[in-house]
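Hey, I was hoping to borrow your eyes for a little while. I'm sending you its amino acid sequence along with the C-alpha cells. Take your time with it, there's no hurry, and the full record follows here.
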Amino acid sequence: MSMNTDFNELHGLLAIVQSIDVGVVVLDRDYSVEVWNTFMENRSGLLPSQVCKRSFFELFPEVDEDWFRRKVESVTTLGTPSFTIWEQRPYLLRFKNYQPITGLEDFMYQNTTLLPLKGIDGRIDQVCLIIYDVTDVAINRRQLQAANAELQRLSSTDRLTGLYNRGHWEEMLRLDYARHRRYDSQAALVMFDIDHFKAINDNYGHQAGDAVIQQVAGLIRENLRDSDVAGRYGGEEFVVLLPDTDKEGALMFAERLRYVVEACEVRHEQHRIRFTISLGVADLSVPSNGHAQLIEWADSALYASKSAGRNRVTLHQN
C-alpha cells in the first residue's frame, strides 16, 4: 500500500470521526488532549486549538480524577475497553442539554466507552474516550419509572383520603402478623369510624361528608409514626396498624386520636360541622389464628364502643 493510499484512508477516518454524532477524545498517557471532534467542540464550546495538548482534568474539573485515572489505567494495563452507563453515573462531562424535547433537564445524560489505542510498536500510548448522548433514553426511562411508581401508588391508596386502601393495608397487616409469629414482636390494630356519619350526609350533603372523611384522614396522618400504617376500611371506617406497640401504647394512640377529632371542626359552605369517632383496639400479644382474626377483634371492640354510647375507646378482651 502506497503512502498516498495510507494518507487517503487516514483522511477518510478523520472525516468520519469529525462527522459522527458521538464525542471522540483521544488522550495521551499524561491525559493531554490530542483529538477533539466536532461533537465535542459543539457541546463544550471549546475549539480544538483551545484544548489541544491541555490537561483533560484542567479542562473539565467536574471529572472525578482519581476514579477516571483508575479506569484509564485498567484499560491500558489489560488492553480491553471499559464502559460507563448513565444509570450509574449520569454524566462524565457536564454538558448542557439543548434538546428541545427534553429541555427540562439541565445536563446531558451520557454513556461512555474507553478504548485502548496501540501504536505501531504495539504499546498502548493513547486512549480514546467516546461519549454518547443518551438524554432521550434516560428521560424516557425516568418518565416510565415515575409513571409506574404513580400507578403503584394509585393501586395501593384510597383516592378520597390518600390513605392506603383495604387491599394494601390488609397485606401490610398480614406481613406484620407473620413477623410477629416469627420474632414474637408486638403490634396492635386500631379500628374506628365516624359517629352518626349518615346524619352528616343527610343534613349537609355528601360533599360535606367527603370533607369530614378527608379531615379525619389528615388528623390520622398528623398523629402517625413513620412505621405506622393507616388505611381506609370502607365508607367512614378506618384502620391504623401500630407495629412494635403494646396494648397500652395503642390505647394511648387511640385516645389521643379520639380527642383531636372531637376538638376539630369542619367548615363546609356556611356550616360548621363537629363530630366524634368510636374506636376499637386489638392486641397481637393475645394468641390468635391469623391476621384476619385481629381485624375481627378490633371490629368487635369498635362495636362495643358504639353500643356503650360512642366517642370512646374499647380494648378487645378475650
